Amino acid sequence: MSSLLWNALTASPVIFGASLLFVNSASASQTPITETVTRQTAITITEKLTASVEPADQDNILRSQMLIEKSSFSPLTSLEIDSTSSGESAIPTASHSSETVAKESNLSQLASPTINPTLELADSTLAQAMPAPEVVPAESTNTLEQTNHYSNDSTADDPMGQVTNVSQLSDVSPGDWAYEALRSLVERYGCIAGYPDGTFRGNRATTRYEFAAGLNACLQQVERLIAASTENFVTREDLETLQRLVQEFETELATLGTQVDTLEGRVAFIEDHQFSTTTQLSGEVDIGIIDAFGDTVAVPSGQTPTEDLDVNTILAGRAILNFDTSFTGLDRLRTKLEGGNFSALSTGTDMTLYDFDTFTRTGSDVVTTVDTGNDIVLGSLVYQFPISRIAQIFISAQGLGSDAIAPQLNPAGGNVSRFGQRNPIYRLSDGAGIGANLQFSKALGVSFSYLGNTAFFSNPDDDRGLFNGQFGALAQLTFTPSDRFGMAFTYNRYYSPQPGEGINVTGNTGSGFAQTPFGDDAATSANAYGIEAQYRFSPRLAIGGWVGFTDAQAQSDGAIANEGDEAEIWNYAVTLGFPDLGGEGNLLGIIFGMPPRIRGNDVANRRDFDTSYHIEAFYRYRLTDNIAITPGAFVILNPEHNDANDTIFVGTFRTTFTF
């Protein structure tokens, strides 16, 4: 056989493959192609080949041309891409592009043909047209075999075309490793097509032609998406307008740049000279107007008042600075500095003490009638840290109160009186020492503290020191089964060994007899018990209250007491809170109760024969996030539990600044 005939026969499979790929790409892109143009295209190529051969060889080439005219192909509607040589994984399919296949087959000069998708490949005819296996190149043979195999797999008269939902592919299930990738390509990009029988056949290999066609289809879809999303982007006219504005405001922009450079320099200087990267400063400033009204100065129970009450209106202030330092992010070292010029009202009773004072506290609030004189003092020095997920430890050298350790359950917090702040038995533990809070669950917590007079704890003399000086040991069980209800059971063991140096078993609340039931010259101990509870009816209404009982004992002889004498002290209160009344952060509080009263005492002349009542109302109104005003007033009926005393009224107007 001549070389020209051999070339013609060799070219025949290429022509077949090109026709097949062209048909495949046209069907995948859903462009209608007529059978006539396809055959005409193939014949035109054959004619160009026969024009250059000898007449003796043209008969064989023309016979190949007739085979092309007789052959029919069913189009492919999807391709498969195998990204691994082992065949263990597959990449999602993409629809064919007629333009890309045409370029790969060097047929881009042909017009866009159309084809009837119902044509079928005649296996026998194709076999006659193929040359011997040992002569035909392997690549051409594989292409024709794959095309023949795809055509024989067609089971539907019409191709499935573009898939709009991955569920349309019957052999793709959610458990397949590439399911999410297929779903993204189908539903997000719309560039996946299936076989006519509704399958994807993801485990099959793909040809480079099919890969190129599928990749081109996806890229075209991405280009359309990009074009759709950027059609409203900035135009050249917009850029020209912006450039003109920059030129017009060139001076102003230069000035602004200078200011930014200056600010950057200042920030860098502050960062280089800042106090500490782990310390935060917070503070509170109170400025208040306070006055008391009544007829006479109160006297202890059993006595008759004789001195007129003459208290002048005062304007005073207090400032607190908190330096909170953290070393681990979970701990806190608080150093509090405070000072001010509030003073106790000269009413004859501590029942009129207000809450926002600056009275110097030594231990358990034992000295509260001395103001700081505007001197800055160390209010507290406390370090707290967690030792487990449920436990917080507190170590204090100064100013730790049990209210910082154990929940108080008072919905009317923010009050203006000292008694209305919390159950007075908490005040027996205050000062230096150690505390712990264990929160076993949201509903159950336990608190402990061992706190006492700083002056006692820091002095190594007799009857002083950490274990021999004045102290209060508190334990509390807090039960909060829901966000609405909470209850606490509190016990406090109090001891003060030094006569005349701060004996006070009620924390400067209640009557003078209740504070020192055996006088100030007998060492005193006490066992105090309390029950506290609150219930929140709604976010706008909560009720709370407490009952406290203290059993005091004389631990030494005194001028009026003997060692072993006992006294019983009671107090109670009911509180109402109306949070966010009139605005977020506001609070209306109402308190009614009985300040500590000594009902029974072995020292007969230090009993409270009558009953005092405390009535209080206040309204904290938040002007801004950092400024609040609190007008308030409280009334003491029968001060010092002595009905011979006249009622005393205390009015306050406080402005609080927080930062």
Overall description:
- The chain is of the alpha+beta class.
- It has a 16-stranded antiparallel beta barrel.
- The N terminus is likely disordered.
- A hairpin with a 5-residue loop joins strand 8 and strand 9.
- Helices cover 26% and strands 28% of the residues.
- The protein contains 13 helices and 16 strands.
- Helix 1 packs across helix 6 and helix 4 packs across helix 8.
Topology, element by element:
Blueprint: H1 3-28, H2 35-50, H3 55-70, H4 98-104, H5 123-129, H6 138-152, H7 179-189, H8 208-229, H9 236-248, H10 250-273, E1 279-293, E2 314-325, E3 332-340, E4 377-386, E5 391-401, E6 430-439, E7 444-452, H11 454-457, H12 465-468, E8 471-479, E9 485-496, H13 512-515, E10 524-538, E11 541-554, E12 566-579, E13 587-601, E14 613-622, E15 627-637, E16 648-658
Antiparallel strand pairs: 1-2, 1-16, 2-3, 3-4, 4-5, 5-6, 6-7, 7-8, 8-9, 9-10, 10-11, 11-12, 12-13, 13-14, 14-15, 15-16
Order of helices and strands: HHHHHHHHHHEEEEEEEHHEEHEEEEEEE
Low-confidence stretches: 1-160, 358-371
Strand order of the largest sheet: 1-2-3-4-5-6-7-8-9-10-11-12-13-14-15-16
The separation of the N and C termini measures 103 Å
Largest sheet: 16 strands, antiparallel, barrel
Residue share in helix: 25-40%
- How much β-strand is present in the residues? 25-35%
Classification by helices and strands: alpha+beta
Shape: elongated
Number of strands: 16
Radius of gyration: 47 Å
